[in-house]
Structures are given as structure tokens and as C-alpha cells.
Amino acid sequence: MKRKLLSVVLCAGLVVSVMAGCGSKSGGDSEAASDMDYVKEKGTLVVGITNFEPMDYKDENGEWIGFDADLAKEFADSLGVEAEFVEIDWDNKILELEGQTVDCIWNGMTLTPEVTSAMECTDSYLANAQVVVVPADVADQYQDEESLADLNFAAEAGSAGEAELEARELNVTPVTAQADALMEVAAGTSDAAVIDLLMAAAMIGEGTSYADLTYTVSLNSEEYGVGFRKGSDLTAELNDFFAKAYEDGTIQELAEKYGVHDMLVK
Amino acid sequence: MEFSEQLPIVVQALNQGFLQTLKLFFVTLLGAIPLGLIISFGSMSRFRPLSYLTKIVVWIIRGTPLMIQLLIIYFMPGLMGNNIWGGGESGRFLAASVAFVFNYACYFSEIYRGGIQGVPKGQEEAGLVLGMTKSQIFFKITLLQMIKRIVPPMSNEIITLVKDTSLARIIALQEVIWAGQSFMKGNQGIAGVIWPLFFTAVYYLIFNGILTVLLGRLEKKLEYFR
Questions:
Q1: Are the CB atoms for A104 and A245 separated by under 8 Å?
Q2: What pLDDT score was predicted for residue A231?
Q3: Would you list the DSSP string of B68-119?
Q4: Which CATH number belongs to the domain containing residue A195 in this structure?
Q5: A103/B87 touch (CB, cutoff 8 Å), yes or no
Q6: How far apart are CA A158 and CA B54, in angstroms?
Q7: What separation in angstroms does the CA of B63 have from each of B52, B94, B162, B174, B177?
Q8: Which residues contact B146 (CB under 8 A, 6 or more apart)?
């Protein structure tokens, strides 16, 4: 009898503690009228990023800086809230957004059909390209698209680079990150990788583990945008902010500072 | 950047990441060891509904990948309209802790059950003859003999746990492998560098070496109960 009582008490204790754990932090349960109100009410704009120089990266003091990070801070200022940067797993960006664990994805994100159908995206604010990365010693053989036919490519799963390769019916192995695609080429497990220009410029060549890699053909040109939750009114607000920032030169200044001025759309 | 310049930056970042790994490891152990005992009582209960319910829960937790459990626990509340974890890194750690504690408690509970049921029935009967109560029999006779029996299988789970913590990177908990990978993409001026990722294995290896020695000592101490 005693034991039965004990088990019932323990069971009840378990249920209560689990519920207490769940109930203790239910700050966001008030149904805010709009996404902007929701963000203003909690006082922070949580920006989902990856460590991605020169868009979002840490300075010596551990502070997030970069072209995107600086712009995001200015935008948060204009809303009267604090920008909070959170590193996310890029594969889960839509989950993070819909699960309200972040408020926007602002990290040199290419506006692919997948992205624009799952998020409320802003107009493009930078232009980028997907480039082919090959070992430098064979680079002169792969200077045009026709020469790529027999290569085995590695590209980030779900990336714009993978889509470009599939559209051309080239052999592609999906890997988890752009960095992994480069490792494939360095290790010889793939002949070539497709990553974006911005990354290629930062990650290969002199002073990296990829000193003997180089990039050749551009497969496309593409646009960067910022993604909010479906139906969010913050998208229009940020479009206005971009327009103003272009007019008063804020964007040009930041682009100069972070070396992305060639990629400006206006 | 020269290797000698990279080394201190990388080691510092990996140390920071491994601190997260250790935090998750100890929180999981502290939570799962007692919770596992409670679950094992549940599954051994003579009160049928309770034992069936517990067994179903254990089946679900042991029958699905921990990675899926992490994703469900972290994202599901927010997807249903109320993010209980908050956005920051502390929320990710809390969610990961809950998933790990629950998952490991279910594995531990089955090890405990085997340990408790492995103590010969004669021991309990001897206690009854001596006029001991059920709880006296459990705490003074069964428990210590059970602990001796479960040390080898528990050591196995504990060593696996050290490495399983790396699964938490799926919800972007910045543990040591995350820290190692960050130098491939670019972190603190080091980009496109591979070796830190492989170097993380050294951390696991050293820590598991220490654990193996400690658990071996514990096993020796408990030889007494042969």
C-alpha cells in the first residue's frame, strides 16, 4: 500500500515539475496584433545569423559586427528596440522563424523560391553570385560552363549553388555546409564545389587551409534579402528603412567599410 | 595567419565550446540519475496503468532519435504559437538539457530495473524475516547491491553521453564541435581552416579517459559486495 502511494506521489510530482517548467517562461503568450507590435512589446529584435564574414561576425570584444549586423542594429534602433543576434543552424532557419525563436533571418540570405515562399522577404539589398571552386593547378581547364560536364560537385544542401547545378543536370553531392563543400575539394573527394562569391573571396587562397583552390565560372547572379515570418508587417517597414538608408548614404558607407560595395544593387 | 598564431585563438574557442559540452554533460547526469530511478519504479509498479504508461513513454523515448527529440522539444512550443524557451542561448541550453535528461533517464531506468530485479529474491525474503519494512529493505539491502551491478552498464552510457552532447548542435547549442566548425566558415579572422574540427576529438578523448579511470575505481570500491 505504502509503495503504491509512493508511486502515485512521485508520478504527480513529475507531472507538476514538468508543467511548472513549461509555465514559468510563458512571456510571449499574449496574442500580439501584428509582428511589429510583438517585437516592440518584448523590446528585442532577435536576428537569426550564422558566423559569416563580412556579413555577421564577431570583433575582438565578442560584439557582433558586419554589413548585415550593423544594418540590423540601425533598423532595431529605428523601431526603438534592441537587436539580439543568435547563431542558428542554417538548415533550420524556417523552423527558427516560425517557432518564434528568432524574429528575422538576416545573414546574406539568397532569395530563392524556397525562401520567398516560406518567409515574408524584403526587396534585395545586395547582389551575389554562385561560383565554381576548383584546385588552382587545373583551373585553366574549367573556365567556361561547357567544361564542367564531367566533374563531381559538392554543394551545400538546399543552397542556391546546389539548385544551379541541378538545373544544369551536373553531378552534385549535397553536404551540410559551404565549408564542407570546400573540404570535399581539398580532400579530393569531389572535383569541384559551388559556393557563393562572398564566401569564396573570404575562405580560399593565401593564408587559409585552401591555399591551392581558386574560383572560376559564375553560374548565376542572385539577390540577398531579409526574411520575416509569413504575413509580418516588419517586411514593409524594413523596405522603407532600406530606401531611406540608400538615400542618406548609410548603406553605401557600410558597404565601403566591409568591402561589399561591388555588390550594391543601386 | 601562421599556425602558431591560430593555435591560441582556436584553443580558447574550443575550451569555451567544451565548457558548454561539460555543462550539458553534468546537468544531464544530475537530472537523469534520479529521474531514471523514478521511471524505473514506475515501470516496475504493481499499479498496472502506471507501469503501462511508463513503458509506453520509455518506448517512445528510446525508440526515436535523440536528434528528433531535440528538434521537437525546442521548436514545437513556438510552432504551436508560444515559444517557452526564449530566443537566446540560455533557452537553447535549457531545451537541450530537458531533452537529454529525459532521454538518458529512460535508458538509465532500464539499467536500474535490471539491477534491482537482478538482486536475488532471497535477500528481500531475509529482510522480511528480520522484520524490516519495504523501504528499509530497498535502501539497506537492495540499493547498494543494485549499484554494484549497474556500474559497468552505466559507465557505458555515461561515456556515450559525453559524445552524444554533440547532437545538441542541431538546435545551435554552441558546444565544442560547433566551435571547431566555426573556423571553417570564418571566426575571429580565421577562415577556411579545417584542423580545429578534427582537434575537438582530443577533448572528448581526454575527458573520456579521465571518466574511464574514475568509473573503474568506483567499480573496484564496490567489489566489497560480492
A1: no
A2: 92
A3: HHHHHHHHHHHHTT--SS-SSHHHHHHHHHHHHHHHHHHHHHHHHHHHHHTS
A4: 3.40.190.10
A5: yes
A6: 40
A7: 16, 23, 20, 26, 26
A8: B112, B115, B116, B118, B119
pLDDT of residue A3: 53
Domain extent for A190: 128-221
Sign of CA dihedral A89, A91, A92, A97: positive
Cell numbers linked to B35: 529521474
Domain span at B173: 3-225
Q: Which amino acid, A226?
A: V
Number of structural domains in chain B: 1
Q: What DSSP string runs through A180-204?
A: HHHHHHHHTSSSEEEEEHHHHHHHS
**Are residues B86 and A25, on separate chains, in Cβ contact within 8 Å?**
yes
Question: How close B174 gets to chain A, by Cα (Å)?
Answer: 8
Residue B27 sits in a domain of what CATH number? 1.10.3720.10
Look at residue A1 and tell me whether its pLDDT is greater than 50.
no
Helix (H, G, I), strand (E, B) or coil at A135: strand
Please give the pLDDT value at position A52. Answer: 82
If asked whether residues A105 and A144 sit together in one domain, one would say no
Q: Are residues A132 and A117 in the same domain?
A: no
Q: What is the pLDDT of residue A4?
A: 56
Nearest CA distance, A247 vs chain B (angstrom)? 32
- Among A51, A156, A176, the strongest candidate for a mutation testing the B interface, having the largest count of B CBs within 10 A, is A51
Cα dist. B5→A53, A256, B127, B188, B190 in Å? 19, 28, 67, 12, 10
Task: Among B10, B83, B92, pick the best mutation site for testing chain A contact (most A Cβ within 10 A).
Answer: B83
Chain A residue numbers with beta carbons less than 8 Å from the beta carbon of B83 are 28, 99-101
pTM above 0.80, yes or no: no
One-character DSSP codes across B12-28: HHHHHHHHHHHHHHHHH
Among all chains, which residue has been given the C-alpha cell 587551409? A209
* Close Cβ partners of A7 (under 8 Å, ≥ 6 residues apart): B41, B42, B45, B47, B50
pLDDT tens figures, A45-99: 999 999 887 899 888 888 999 999 999 999 999 999 999 999 999 889 999 999 9
Mutation for A interface: B44, B128, B137, B184, most A CBs within 10 A: B184
Report CB contact under 8 Å: B185, A87: no
Distance CA A229, CA A241 (A): 18
Distance, in Å, from the CA atom of B116 to the CA atom of A177, rounded to the nearest integer, reads 47
Tell me how far apart the alpha carbons of residues B224 and A66 are, in angstroms, rounded to a whole number: 62
Mean pLDDT value of segment B165-173? 92
Write down the pLDDT at residue B202. 97
Considering the domain architecture, whether residues A208 and A257 belong to the same structural domain is answered as no
